[in-house]
Design goal:
The complex is a heterotrimer of chains A (247), B (236) and C (399). Chain A has 247 residues and is mainly alpha-helical. Chain A has a single domain (37-246), classed as Orthogonal Bundle (MetI-like fold), CATH 1.10.3720. Chain A is built from 10 helices and no strands. In chain A, helix 3 packs across helix 6. Chain A is elongated, with a radius of gyration of 23 Å. Chain B is mostly helical. Chain B is elongated and about 70 Å long. The chains are: A mainly alpha (247), B mainly alpha (236), C alpha/beta (399). The interface between A and C is medium-sized, with 23 and 30 residues.
């Protein structure tokens, strides 16, 4: 199945890359069997600064846009129930299409660069945030809504003062998944010249080498972990009544 | 970078899929066409099913068992969360540069990516079965195996299938960049623009999207078939 | 046909309004018959009106028409003389207390915040709200420090009380209560009922109370409307009238065959003629007592030992009287001791439970007032006097 040309190309990439480098930055992987070069890592750690910032930028913008859109859609669908299945299906399609393919599908429309990446990544987050928001709102006990209505809350007051606060745990759960996934997928942004940590894995049309890849992957994973923890703490802070129940 | 109008591009892409054309990039050599497209689709499906199968064999029984016994929640959920954070590009790149190229190396690694959603959903799927129902079944005199087969599994189907579908999505997506590690999939069209041209690029993207949607649709249908009628009414 | 007095006072002095249903009708699309069919009912200000009936008779729907959580199809409902249809629903509801069976406290707000919810909607100042919340916590008998807890940290009975406090917070004109004590266990339910009645004696709100339990209706209501499907009122009367003169067979069946026993809930021990037992003081000559016992007109054949203040100490047996003087301690224990203020139904229950033939009855200072027995009660129920007796409807016996 595998064409010799491609195999050669893969092999060539590694070697060719090495041959182009000057001797002083020659990565240790030239020696067979070395997985991770600590020296190279220590010396070159600053080159990850800019890509990391780019990566963060893309992720934050995508999640922000995705959240705003999905949240608005969910509020809308919460009122108009018949919209829920079609919206779920629509956001589902956007989720199913692999981001890489999506990047290139948009190419004729928006071209290379950051904007395309952000649109695609935002679209990817829509389903999880939309679905979790709806779920959170649906889980509010009917008796609480009945009491609020009977006490004299207007529908808008019920939504913002009762339903949404109680839906926070589910909404943030969705946000966590969205953020973690987006941080990982944003590495692909390099394929449409949008920068990010992917540049350290597959820069300028060639794969880099293990140490570089591992560092980039490690930064991605750590970033994801950090955001996950921050959001989790945010959720705990925003829901003091749940902590009380566990006491 | 010249951008032809979107419609012209799609037209060109469709042409590419079905009829091999002369590419001005490779100096007159013919690229694309139906045979090549089919070859790559099959390659993509091959590695996807292989990886998905491997992931199912490893993760499904484990996840179901852990859920049934109620143990290892931290493990299952931890793996699930961690799995989402792993960048696919790095995984493929490491396979290519460290382990080796070809289906034999890539498929297991893709399977690893699929294990995360399957194991966490299998665990959760069994755990979320109403304990009262399980109690009732045991009380009726059902042995453990029957309880699993006749009660827990059927009730866990929607959640478990959700995990399988999630795994399929991530595997199909990662298979798209598998050409970087020497496996011929539709990603070939996308990643080797210099060979296949703009049309090839778009064609690849369209085919991948279609394949992913069709696979998802097929799995959704499978889920419907496997879900008992009673459950279907409830989750309608 | 519903009977009732015309709304004499629209608003009582304590800030309660009358409620008037005027041919109020509710139709749901798709149903042939209306859920509530031309209901006409007057509830005077300050009264508890209980809507009672089988499931699906429309009692809850009727109640909800008052605060428009169910919209009125035809006819009208007046609160304090003005139509509820003229008001904006949300504003109307802020003036009407609303208590539902599942309580519906906001899980994400503290108890104090829950209680202060409507005042906050009305724009009260923060310290005023805090003061009112503390006041109400005290009124419902809860520790003020519970104000900072969350609903999940309270028991069911406590939550239910907070539900009532929440409804009272903004000093509403009318209270709507839909099976408010339905989800509570019977012991706490009785306590909550008693507490609410005690509260009502102080604040005198107009209350529309929905229940399916006829015993609760008789206990709580100043006036009871027995309803059947379509919200049709079979009888609207005081509890005593309902028990003594059920208007239709439906009412009779619904009230139950044990009407007579139910009436005991309306009486106090003081309402009945008690028997007398020969009283014995410590150190009294036994011979005197024995003579009394042998004499005519003895209602209770056992002497009751009492102290200097005529407080009962125990029942004397034959053996106790064998000596020269009456001993300081009686052979038989006192058994159940009742008070004049006790509700007759509870007194009967105490008698039966104590397996005693006779129970000493004291006044509120503990001094002997008479002796009650099961026989007295059953004689009374059989007597013609019991059948035609009118009991004042306003006085509510409660613990």
């Amino acid at each position: 199945m595998s064409s010799p040309a491609l195999l050669a190309a893969a092999g060539q990439v590694g070697e060719g890359f090495f041959h182009e480098r000057s001797s002083e930055s020659l990565p240790c992987q030239a020696k067979a069997g070395e997985v991770f070069c600590w020296d190279w890592a220590r010396e070159n750690i600053d080159r990850y600064g800019a890509p990391t910032l780019q990566h963060l930028e893309i992720v934050l913008l995508s999640v922000l846009i995705g959240f705003v859109v999905a949240f608005a859609l969910a509020l809308f669908a919460h009122r108009t129930r018949w919209l829920q299945p079609p919206l779920l299906a629509a956001t589902g399609v956007l989720y199913t299409i692999p981001s890489i393919a999506f990047f290139f599908l948009l190419l004729p429309l928006t071209g290379f660069g950051r904007d395309t990446a952000i649109i695609v990544l935002a679209a990817y987050t829509l389903q999880i945030i939309y679905r979790n928001t709806i779920l959170g709102l649906d889980n509010v006990p009917a008796s609480v809504k009945d009491a609020a209505r009977g006490m004299g809350y207007t529908p808008r007051q019920i939504l913002w003062r009762v339903e949404l606060p109680l839906a926070i745990p589910e909404i943030i759960a969705g946000l966590r998944v969205a953020v973690v996934s987006t941080i990982a997928i944003a590495t692909l942004a390099v394929l449409i010249s949008a920068g990010g940590l992917g540049t350290q894995i597959y820069g300028s049309g060639n794969l880099t080498f293990p140490t570089s890849i591992i560092i980039a992957a490690a930064i991605v994973i750590l970033m994801a972990l950090a955001f996950d923890l921050v959001l989790l703490s945010l959720q705990r802070l925003a829901t003091p009544w749940r902590r009380a129940a566990l006491r | 970078m010249s951008s032809p109008s979107p419609i012209a591009s799609i037209g060109g892409a469709i042409e590419f899929i079905f009829a091999s054309q002369e590419s001005n990039v490779t100096g007159g050599k013919k690229v694309g066409g139906f045979d090549k497209s089919l070859e790559l689709v099959v390659g993509h499906l091959e590695v996807t099913f292989l990886a998905l199968g491997l992931a199912l064999i490893v993760a499904l029984p484990l996840g179901l068992y852990l859920g049934h016994r109620g143990r290892g929640e931290l493990l299952a959920v931890g793996i699930g969360n961690a799995g989402r954070a792993i960048p696919e590009l790095a995984v493929i790149a490491l396979v290519a540069t460290l382990i080796g190229v070809g289906m034999r190396n890539v498929a297991p690694v893709l399977a690893l990516l699929g294990i995360a959603p399957i194991i966490v959903n299998a665990y959760v799927g069994v755990r979320q079965v109403d304990p009262a129902v399980v109690e009732a079944a045991r009380g009726m005199g059902m042995g453990e195996l029957n309880v699993i087969r006749k009660v827990e599994l059927p009730l866990a189907v929607p959640t478990v299938m959700g995990g399988v579908r999630g795994a399929a999505i991530v595997i199909v997506a990662t298979a798209t960049i598998a050409p970087l590690a020497g496996v011929e999939t539709l990603g070939d069209f996308i990643l080797n623009r210099n060979v296949y041209g703009e049309n090839g690029l778009l064609a690849g993207a369209i085919l991948v999207a279609l394949l992913a949607l069709l696979l998802e649709g097929a799995l959704a249908l499978l889920q419907r078939r496997l879900t008992s009628d009673g459950l279907k009414l409830k989750t309608a | 046909m519903p009977t009732g007095e015309p709304a004499s006072s629209q608003r009582s002095q304590t800030g309660a309004s009358s409620v008037s249903f005027q041919e109020a009708t509710k139709r749901y699309p798709g149903s042939e018959r209306p859920a509530v069919d031309r209901l006409t009912l007057e509830v005077p200000a300050g009264d508890i009106c209980v809507l009672v009936g089988p499931s699906g008779c429309g009692k809850t729907t009727a109640m909800r028409m008052v605060n428009r959580t169910v919209e009125i199809s035809e006819g009208d409902v007046l609160v304090g003389g003005s139509s509820v249809r003229d008001r904006e629903p949300a504003r109307l509801r802020r003036e009407i207390g609303y208590v539902i069976q599942q309580i519906g406290l906001f899980p994400h707000r503290t108890i104090a915040e829950n209680i202060g919810a409507v005042p906050q909607l009305l724009g009260w100042k923060r310290d005023r709200i805090a003061r009112r919340a503390a006041e109400l916590l005290d009124l419902i008998g809860l520790d003020p420090e519970l104000g900072d807890r969350y609903p999940s940290q309270l028991s069911g009975g406590q939550q239910q009380r907070v539900g009532v406090a929440r409804a009272l917070a903004a000093d509403p004109l009318v209270m709507l209560m839909d099976e408010p004590f339905g989800a509570i266990d019977p012991i706490n339910r009785e306590r909550l009922q008693n507490e609410f009645l005690r509260l009502q004696a102080e604040i005198r709100k107009t209350v529309l109370f929905v229940t399916h339990d006829i015993d609760e209706a008789i206990k709580m209501g100043d006036r009871i409307a027995v309803m059947r499907e379509g919200g049709r009122v079979e009888q609207y009367a005081t509890p005593a009238e309902l028990l003594m003169a059920p208007a239709t067979e439906f009412v009779e069946d619904f009230v139950g065959a044990d009407r007579a026993l139910k009436r005991l809930a309306l009486m106090r021990v003081a309402d009945i003629d008690l028997w007398e037992a020969p009283l014995a003081h410590v150190g009294q000559a036994s011979a005197e007592l024995r003579a009394k016992l042998a004499g005519p007109g003895v209602e209770v054949p056992y002497p009751l030992l009492v102290d200097a203040e005529r407080r009962p100490l125990g029942w004397l047996s034959e053996r106790d009287l064998e000596g020269e003087i009456v001993p300081g301690r009686a052979d038989s224990p006192l058994g159940p001791v009742l008070e004049l203020d006790d509700v007759m139904r509870d007194a009967l229950a105490d008698l039966l439970q104590g397996e005693a033939q006779y129970a000493a009855v004291t006044d509120h200072q503990g001094r002997i007032a008479g002796v009650l027995s099961v026989e007295i009660i059953s004689e009374f129920l059989k007597s013609p006097e019991a059948r035609t007796d009118e009991h004042p409807a306003v006085e509510r016996p409660h613990e």
